[in-house]
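Dear V.,

Thank you for sending over the compound details. I've combined the ligand you provided, adenosine-5'-triphosphate, with the protein sequence from our construct and run the structure prediction for the complex. I'm sharing the raw inputs here so there's no ambiguity about protonation or stereochemistry in the SMILES, which I know was a concern on your side last time.
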Amino acid sequence: MKKTVMIGFLGTVLDDGFSQKRHKKWRPNVNVHHVLDIDRVELFIAPQYERLALQVADDIYSIRPDMHINFVNMPLDNPWDFGEVYEKLASWADSYEFDIEKENYLTHITTGTHVAQICLFLLVESRQIPSVLLQTAPPKGDDALCKTELIDLDLARYDVLASRLDTVKNDAMKFLKTGIETKNAAFNRLIGQIEQVAMGSNSPMLIMGATGAGKSRLAKRIYELKKARHLVSGRFVDVNCATLRGDMAYSALFGHKKGAFTGAMTARDGYLLTAHKGVLFLDEIGELGADEQAMLLTALEDKSFYPMGSDTPVHSDFWLIAGTNKDLKACVKAGTFREDLYARINIWQYVLPALAHRREDIAPNINYQLAVANQELGRTVRFDKAAYERYLVFAMSEQAVWTGNFRDLSASLLRLATLATGGRIDEGLVDDEIRRLLDLWVDDEPLCHQQAVLLSHQLQQKIEHLHIDEFDKMQLINVIKFCQAHDSLASAGRALFDVSRKGKTTSNDSDRLRKYLGKFGITWQDICRL
Ligand SMILES: Nc1ncnc2c1ncn2[C@@H]1O[C@H](COP(=O)(O)OP(=O)(O)OP(=O)(O)O)[C@@H](O)[C@H]1O
Ligand SMILES: [Mg+2]
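Below is the predicted structure of the protein with adenosine-5'-triphosphate bound, written out as structure tokens.
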């Protein structure tokens, strides 16, 4: 028979009372023993309430003489300070020897401040305290005042809450994906991580990816999501650093004082100030000049900077998203990008996969881009069945390199929709379009050379430091890229060893893949962490 242990605070208000009248009053820590068979109590007490604790203990013993009460000294400077209360309870839980084989635990949350209740809830929910939650209440009706009503807060009921939180996350991910149902595991994982970081971090985010992979669009969506959650109140300021040239670059970003240079008739705020309390998206950040890089670093570190011609710093607090299709690390090595700025913006780095590496997502994107084209043209154009299949087969084939990514796809569908007479896209139109696309890509790099930046910074570093032949390196990189399109080690293993497995009686593809990666010190988690 397991013992029952109750954990909870001495109620300085509810359990209070020294006169005889107290027996007529409902006191949670005392009356609970009328209802429950409890063998031990771990009672948190503040030193100044020792007298009350002794009185409560006496009253409990009068109901359950065989009871064991452990006073746990819990001095709290401020029982309403979330940080302090959580820290103290968590460290108690950490050192307490729970014996779940022999004992059942009940965490009583009727007494203590609301902060204490929340902290206990969190500790139980995270299983740092392996118990069920218990709430007590006075019974209804006057005649049984000193009894207790039990409310078992079964955590299973909070599954509903958990599933609501999941729904919120899924909705956010769907929003970031513009409602397009994507299947590519690497992309979906990436969006999940971006959602988490966008909601919980104020550090800069670096979005890398080939041209047209969707960096600008994603940055805007992240801003809209943050705005909807009231995490930013300012504006989305979208700046393409490649368009900022010469002397005007500094003033465009950081502003200038009236008369700062010839022609400066009025003062100018600059993009950084316009983005105060909002999001500043610096696209093509690799194109920034040396002076602008230096001042941007100051602006990020101090949240203030100097407009051109001014000795007075200007304050601006913005969230930075940087975009680039360049390998910034290579720019650092080449001396064109500051190493300290790179370190400052490279806290959350994400690499958007190219469309050609997300072949399973091409079909929903065709539908989406056609709907966008229809909206733009104010028409309702559809594919003939055979024409759609021909276009899809081509779009998903190795021949289609999609070097301009979504830009190529959207232009292609806009052309098809424009040329479709009678609202139908037929096979003839598709054949012409395929020829057009092939002409467009004729000098482009073959797919296997595209997107050298697809691997995460950490993985690239790991691979760079391996003492292995180029031959093995290329194979390893391709295996990793292949793995990224899969949800699990098992699924990647199955697809990678599909042929050789057929000759075997037993198969352990996951193990084979794990061992292969393990030879290079790479784990499945390294691959998932894009
Ligand atoms: N995930 C997506 N699904 C469908 N269409 C997209 C997606 N992302 C972007 N697009 C569309 O593709 C086009 C290019 O996207 P975007 O401008 O965001 O690319 P980019 O990576 O910023 O390119 P660049 O490096 O040239 O600035 C836009 O018309 C955009 O609406
Ligand atoms: Mg862009």
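A first observation: The pocket of adenosine-5'-triphosphate (ligand 1) is lined by residues 178, 180, 209, 211-217, 283, 325, 365, 368, 406-407, 410 (CB under 6 Å).

Warm regards,
I. M.
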